[in-house]
What we know:
Layout: E1 9-14, E2 21-28, H1 33-38, E3 41-44, E4 48-52, E5 61-64, E6 69-74, H2 88-98, H3 102-110, E7 118-124, E8 127-133, E9 138-141, E10 150-153, H4 160-163, H5 184-199, H6 205-216, E11 226-233, E12 238-243, E13 248-253
Antiparallel strand pairs: 1-2, 1-10, 2-11, 3-4, 4-5, 5-6, 6-7, 7-8, 8-9, 11-12, 12-13
Amino acid sequence: DMINLGLCSGIAIKDNASGHFVGAANLDYSIFLETMRENATIIHKSNFISVGFPGHVGVLRAVNRWGLALASFTSTTRKSVNWPGVPNGLMYNQMINNATDVESALAILMNTYRGASNNLLLVEKNDAVVIEHLFDRFSIAGPTTDNYFYVCATNHFQSGSLSQYQDIVQPKFLTEVEPDHFTQKFSEDRLTCLNALGTHNHASGDQLIFNLKTCLTINPLCNQGTIFTTIFNLSKKELTVLVPHRHEEVTIPLSF
């Protein structure tokens, strides 16, 4: 697991026209930035398509043949509450390879001997949740009328029951991003931007996709460490991958 190296942001928001959720997430890192941007890879499997980079085992961003999308976000805790178990990337691989919807993905998480803590965004056309999990407990948040039909996540726990275990620390090695990237404040600043996007959303269709692309490719959501942006348009069965710092973009059909 990438312990406090990945600094990511993501949102699932309902399209006002179709009533379906669209998922979007940035994958940020702290070292080997240009190499990772140059080698961002779309991987086609029999049951899913994932976006990652060579050398990483497991799933970080993916969408499967049943229309379930997944994005993970590092959220570190005190060492005493991390536990030897299945690495998150491998657990998420199991989810995206087998789960047909949010409910069955949750069942896999609950029945897995988990290790490191993390945040997870799950999206299907008619549902979206953020899961915050430790090895022995978890919290689930879904969209409600009160929050304008969206959910979002960055790199800290929003749940009061889990926030007491949070411990975001500076890496003990040289990174290519500023030290303030490894703070809860920077995570909260990005969450504020995502909440503003969700609460002020009046867009649908292509305009919503444009708004997501715009917001996720400008500061602070797009920052020094951003590797790529993924947009899961489940209603249109499209996956868009952007590499903002290289001004690259590709959209592929989800032909499952």
